[in-house]
Structure formats: C-alpha cells, structure tokens
Design a protein that fits this description.
Number of helices: 14
Largest sheet: none
Strand content: under 5%
Radius of gyration: 21 Å
C-alpha cells in the first residue's frame, strides 16, 4: 500500500479518536479515580487483549491457509489484525475502515482476490461466532432464571425472544452464505438502494468474474476445507468466551456475584447482552453511547449497582482507546519499501 493511502486511513482513525475523546462525558477526576481503583487489574485487562488479538490473527491465518499457501509472516498478520480492529472501532459502520485497509495491505502477498476473500471470511467468522455466543447466553440466562438466580419477567422474556429470533436468523443467513457465497448477493442488494444503484450495478458488471471467484472461495472454506472452517470457528467462539474475563476482573474489585464460577457467568452474560446492544448501534464510531447504555442495563439486570456499570463501561472505554491508539501507531511501523511502492 502506498504511504499516501496509508496516511489517509491513519488520519481518518486519528480524527475519529479525537472526536470520541471530546465527546467522552466523564470528568477527569472520575476517570482517574476509576483507573486508580482498577489498579493492577487494568494491566491484566490490557494484557488480556494481546491474547485475544493473537487468537484473531491465528483464525485469519487458518482462513488464508485454507485457500493456499500463506507467505505473510504471523507477526504481520497480528499487526494488521490489531490495526484493522482499531479502524473498525474508530469508524462509523465498523467495516468501513478495517476491512478495506487489510485487503489493501494483504494483496501484496496473496493477490487481490485471495486477500478480499480471506478478509471477508474472517469478518464473517467473527460475526458468526458472535451469533453463537449470543445464542449461548440465552440458554445460560434461562437456566440461571429457572434456579431463581436471575429475574425472568415478561420484559426479559421478550428481550430473550428477540435475541433468539435475531441470532437464529443471523446463523441461518451465515450458513446460507457459507454454502453459496454472499458477495454477489450483497452487491445485488446494494443495487436497490437509492444513491448506490448506479455504482453497484456498474461494479457488478465490471467485476462479475472476480466477485464469482470470491464467492467460490468463500463456499470452499465450508465445503472443501471443513478442518479450517471448524478450527477458525472454535478459535473465534472461545475468544469471545475468553473476553468475559475482562468483565470478570472488574467484578472482582466490587465483590460482585456470589463466587468465582457464578461471577464469571455473570460477566459472560453482561458481555453478551452489552455487545449485542452495541452492535445493533454499529453506525456509531467506537459504538459511542451504545456500549455505556448496554453495560448499564446488563449490570442492572444482574442485580448490581449503577456504580459498577459505570466503572465497567469507563475501564472498557480506556482499554478500547489504548488498543485503538496502538493499532493506529502500528500502521506506521513495520512497512517494507516494497509494500510502500505497491
């Protein structure tokens, strides 16, 4: 990727982070007090994401290998993974930033078609694992409610029913997408949207063969490379479970829950409900406001105080800003002269 193009991505992400900082409605005194309260657990939370990003990069590497050789070194995949997520956090609609950037960086190694299909497959697997993660939380919540550990009123039943329909529909669409591909259908959908009709139809006509090849590569992962498919899914699903430790560490500071195991289950449910709510507001940069509202509602549903919800949301925001900054900085390092020319 040319340095000029890379600088555009960098500037876009930097501006989004600055906007987020100026709209972060928390006083410096409260922010500093919460950071001090977190203490050494803050370092554990920041370090936890190194493991999560390694798992994400490993997933992506498995997907790349599913369609051929993988000449790109693992450290480079990890670098692009962190930077890609940083751009997704900082830009509206998420995939507007990170995925195009990763495709442009990766095409130097494996060509445009394989780069595009591998990035789309990783994004699909990441979302697909989220749907199963959310579906798991429905079952866990109902089991705890049956044992009288969590409330299950009419309102919560409706929320769980919505989650069930949403997750079921999402899983069904992704299974269909893995079997038949979904890029061509997505472009067709865009051709019916006002303002995008002309562009989508022209793009479909000019890149018809390339789009069909990408769809074939997507379907081949599930039909011909099942080992790669299930290995990448397992990594992403376990990664979502592992992320629950972030909330768990913070709940320990408040002695929330009734024990180590149950506290972790509460952390898992808080993460699941919050991430679902925040992803429904995907058009907001850094999921601004959606994440905080999700934490407030999820923590209250677990019978915890609003102070815990505020603390968790602030520390998670600090972690997001930290790793977004790291991701943007990584964009400027480790770029060879050959990559800069292409």
């Amino acid at each position: 990727m040319k340095n000029k193009t890379r600088n555009i991505f960098f500037a876009f992400g930097l501006i989004a982070v600055i906007v987020m900082l100026f709209t972060f409605k928390v006083s410096f005194a409260q922010l500093w007090a919460d950071i001090c309260h977190a203490g050494y657990w803050l370092w554990a939370i920041l370090g936890l994401w190194i493991v999560l990003y390694v798992m994400n990069a490993w997933t992506w590497r498995i997907i790349i290998q599913g369609s051929g050789d993988c000449p790109i070194p693992f450290w480079k995949i990890l670098k692009l993974t962190i930077t890609g997520f940083a751009l997704n956090y900082a830009t509206p609609a998420g995939l507007m930033g990170g995925e195009p950037y990763k495709i442009m960086e990766l095409k130097t190694y494996i060509g445009t078609q394989r780069a595009t299909s591998s990035v789309l497959l990783f994004a699909m697997m990441h979302i697909f694992a989220h749907f199963w993660f959310w579906a798991t939380s429905i079952v866990v919540y109902v089991i705890l409610a049956l044992y009288g550990l969590l409330p299950l009123g009419l309102g919560m039943m409706l929320v769980l029913l919505f989650m069930l329909c949403f997750c079921g529909g999402g899983i069904y669409l992704f299974i269909r997408g893995y079997k038949n591909g979904m890029v061509v259908k997505l472009i067709r959908m865009l051709s019916h949207i006002p303002g995008l009709k002309k562009w989508a139809r022209s793009f479909a006509e000019n890149h018809k063969e390339d789009l069909q090849k990408i769809d074939r590569q997507i379907s081949e992962l599930q039909s011909q490379n099942q080992k790669s498919f299930y290995a990448s899914f397992a990594l992403e699903y376990v990664g979502r479970m592992f992320q629950s430790f972030e909330i768990y560490f913070m709940l320990l500071l408040f002695d929330a829950g009734t024990g180590g195991g149950l506290t972790f289950v509460y952390a898992f449910l808080i993460l699941s409900f919050t991430s679902l709510f925040a992803n429904l507001l995907f058009f907001l940069p850094l999921q601004l406001g959606g994440r905080e509202g999700g934490f407030a509602m999820s923590v209250a549903q677990m019978g915890m105080t609003a102070d815990i919800g505020m603390f968790v949301s602030i520390i998670c925001r600090v972690r997001e800003l930290f790793w977004t900054a790291i991701g943007l900085l990584l964009m400027k390092v480790g770029n060879s002269s050959e990559e800069t020319k292409n």
